[in-house]
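[STRUCTURE TOKENS]
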Amino acid sequence: MKEQGSIRQRIFEIIQIGNKDDLPSRLFDWGIAIVILLNITAMFCETFDALEPLYSLFHVIEAVTVAIFCVEYALRIWTSDLLYPKLAKKKAVIRFLLSFDGVVDLLTILPFFYLSGFIAFRMLRVVRIFHLFRINAQYDSFNVITTVLFEKRNQIFSSVFIIVILMFASSIGMYSAEHEAQPDVFKNAFSGLWWSMSTLLTVGYGDIYPVTAIGRIMAICIAFLGVGVVAIPTGIISAGFV
């Protein structure tokens, strides 16, 4: 039992983010990073028709890399009580499964077996690469971003609430102005909501647009409001970084 415990302890040390003095752990970090890049590259290349003769190779790479992810995931579950030493074994496992790393690992494995439509979740593995090679959590750039967002959460929530209210108000207004002129385009308030979203957020797809005079006047005002509305959360976040 003591030997098994020492093996589990060593495996835990290896699969966690290693320090520069622990060569096996650092090699594991680099190996996982390479496997992540191979998996994403294979997924990306499978979208090119010109590379169809190599599809079988991409499938093999995908299967092997996902198998490695599964082994890593199983090892992290097995050693989860060492990651959370104050918790009981079952609670530690649940804590890991619900943690950011646990959810990311699961979402990047499942699309290979199920949920094929959610294959884009594998891109979440890129986040793991940054996580593997961060210098220190205190100076980690991702930690700075999350800290700013957390500290400014009330202001950001208020600005998003204002955006949502303006979207609904402008959608109803545009529906009232354009429904009679374009009944097939502005069928209901949701059609106006799609237009207001693309206008307020300054995307402007152009698939839905007003044709009446009052509708165009409203569109001009809403477009100006959109520039200011988008600037509000941007200013809040910028001030947080400063």
